[in-house]
Amino acid sequence: MTALPTVFAPPETLRRLPTPARPRVDPADVVVPDGYDVDVVLAGLSMPTGMGFADDGTLYVLEGGSTWPTRPYLPARILRLDPSGDLAAIGQEPLGGPRGVAVHGGYVYVAAKGGYHSRIVRYDRYTDERAVVVDGLPDGGWHEPGGPVFGPDGLMYFAQGSVSQNGVVLPQGYLVDLARHPEAHDVPGQDVVLTGNNVDTYDPTAPYPYLVRTGPFKPFGVGAQQGEVVKGALKCSTGVWRSHPDGSGMELLAWGVRNPYGMAFSEDGDLYVCDNDFEEYGDRAIANDPDRIWLIRNARTPHGSVATPDWYGFPDICGDGLPGWDDKHLPQRGRPAQRLLAEHPVWAGPPVFFEAPHSAMAKMDFCRSDAFGRRGRLFASEWGSLAPMNSPRPQDLDHGFRVIAVDVAHGTAESFVRNRHPGPASAQGTGGIERPVDCKFHPDGRSLYVLDFGVSQVDQSKQLSYGHTGVLWRITRR
Length: 478
Known about the structure:
The strands form 9 sheets. This protein has a 5-stranded antiparallel beta sheet, with no helix packed on it. It has a 5-stranded antiparallel beta sheet with strand order 2-28-27-26-25, with no helix packed on it. Strands 12-13-18-19-23 form a 5-stranded mixed beta sheet, with no helix packed on it. The chain contains 1 helix and 33 strands. The model has no long low-confidence stretch (mean pLDDT 94). The longest helix has 4 residues, at 11-14. By secondary structure, the chain is mainly β. It has a single domain (2-184, 237-477), classed as Neuraminidase, CATH 2.120.10.30.
């Protein structure tokens, strides 16, 4: 454990920060419903990705650090904020970076990505001893591990997003996929039969223009054959699992969830998982796919009883139940998608909630407190659009950049934390929120903590994220 220096920053200091990308942080620029106040708990975080409370109010905050990457190097750390205000780093996950955290039974459980696989790592709360309890979840690509969260049954629930963006590993994800992990590919959660439809595209690793053919569930440059059977695996991509806290008894509940970054249990024991839409660019482009929240029905079944996991649509079906090649989903930019699976498993949809495309729904938490209000609502952070990089549509530029409160029973939501105008604060010259990546309720039930990733700017060809611009906000009911 390494103690970290912190200083108290009065409001006037927060409005004059030495970070050019985010020189101002001002709670007065954050809009919340009447009867709630906003303040700043921490500023200066570097690419924070998740957080979790212990019952005593200790908060664990994850920094993604240089896994984006950054220059100069910034460590990917697990931070501990004591109720006294002392801040320390209890560990690092330098291979790929921590993404989600939960505290259970004297341990801190961290979902971390890196290399060709993601994993669940366990830290002892008192000795900081580290152990890997789950490993080998297919990664090395674009999307993230989800969870972990612990259910009312005491089991650990976790997830893993897709390796590819849109079902086939393509050069549009070069810096994330091919440059670092040229053999990475998706893995199905059950046996699938392929149509033989491949994508022909250029090879960015070749010294001169060279066309290659790539199929689904294949590394870049490996084609699929008509009628080919790809065997499903327990450790698949796009999967949702449960296990004992030590990683034993691992069971696949669902697959086909493209990016299940946010997971949360309701008070009555239902598991909800958010999911991000397909991208409208590249050589298998899909348009107008809504972000969504799924109910994972198999989480209600007894442990060990799931013979066949539910399927939620990836790589062929959008959140609305339509195929990616339907007229509604034909792209304005990029090459239209073709069917990849010859036979589709039974679709487990529809979602319980639809959100605008490219809102980038992230981590979530249910309100369990009458003291805060809106008990039973699912609070979901929305990291915000990557348009115009992943969509050419002007209406997608400002989607997300807020926290919403979802009524999962009726499929409706209200905007709970936002800026005065849509979009990130840095685009408006204000001190409000940038990109909310997580939201968690304090164990006392009186306040909602919102973790803000910080400044991440996007244009049609690139994304640039800035260290030391992340903020931890707190919303408290008067």
